[in-house]
Amino acid sequence: MKAAGIVVEYNPFHNGHLHHARSAKESAGADILVAVMSGQFLQRGEPAFADKWRRTEMALANGVDLVIELPYVYATAQASDFARGSITLLEAIGCEAFCFGSEQGAIEPFLKSRQLLNKENLAYQQRIHEAVQSGISYPKAMNEAYQEVTGGQEGFADLTKPNNILGYHYIEAAERISSSMQPLTVQRIGANYHDPITEGLSIASATGIRKAFFEGGSLEELSAYLPAYSIEALQNFAKEYGRFGSWETFYPMLRFTILREKPENLRQFAEVTEGIEHLIYEAARKEQDFEAFIGRIKSKRFTRTRIQRMLTHIFTGFTWEMLKSFKQPSYLRLLGMTQAGRQYLNAQKKNISLPIISRAADLADNRMGKIDIQASSLYLLGLGSSNLKKEFTTPPIYFG
């Protein structure tokens, strides 16, 4: 059985994701589709709209055969580390190809860009360092350095686009771990990453869908953009929790967590740097809603995404020391499978290079796993759940 891998968040699973899943399986000629999926917190430093179990159900109902959780350490990391964790897991579970959605739509420009940056790495890194020292954000510094290195020539990947950036880092990560997987990409169609919902289109961005919902739209009104099972899963989630995950929902707890600490204590948390702890503390002291709070902090140097990752780590208690102590994933946490996924695991178990974990209890002595469990408990608390043991009582979802 040939397996292809994808890296996802499904926040929530929409029609664009359905297109990606189907196209990935088809382009790889695969029998099995494996998704490495972020858990309760996401790469842009946000609580997930719905928990990882509901998003697993959405995936399994729409063409994915195995869902593996990307550990918190990587799920909330900058793009290069997010990609490294994800690609390592896909390699470990035996995928023969990985496929990402991109604005580029062709794999050759990514391979050409990787070849160039390997050759010009010293000059590229020096230009990034100089640009950051001038006071601009790291993503902008990377883009400026990249534009200088490519010299405006055609044929390279456009690394100003969010999915292209991640795609480049997937290829970089695969190269660095000497992966045997074939890299593939499919064209992102419909809305762009941050676009609002557009009438008449059946594909909207997850950002646009969440924005429309939080501005008063109902799940039923969003049904044109999501597969039927996604709507059903989200309706069940709403019945269980009465709310959806967002920083507005979690802000009272985040604010308490920040104000409980002295500003200098905030420096211990991952990604908090350059004195921003004072801004974070003062903003929490003055502002009662999240948008006003983050509006006081973001700047030319600190993007919203970077700040949100800091806030995620403060909220979960994830420190610089923890971040620096991990070099690679140490397990495959199974969230769900179809019948075909189960058959694949049974057939390939001798060839899978990391232990497959199906129970949270088996992570009790694993440092990386304990961070996942802690983050999940705090996510559930942020939703107002009374069942903080859900991590231990929820088995892998079987969709057959």
Automatic annotation (TrEMBL):
GO BP terms: tRNA modification
Enzyme Commission (EC) number: 6.3.4.-
SUPFAM superfamilies linked: Nucleotidylyl transferase
GO cellular component, one term: cytoplasm
Transport is among the record's keywords: no
Chief place where the protein resides: cytoplasm
Compartments where located: Cytoplasm
Pfam families, per the entry: HIGH_NTase1
GO molecular function, one term: tRNA binding
Keywords, comma-separated and alphabetical: ATP-binding, Cytoplasm, Ligase, Nucleotide-binding, RNA-binding, Transferase, tRNA processing, tRNA-binding
Similarity field: Belongs to the TmcAL family.
Name used for this protein in its record: tRNA(Met) cytidine acetate ligase
Organism of provenance: Planococcus halotolerans
Name of the encoding gene: tmcAL
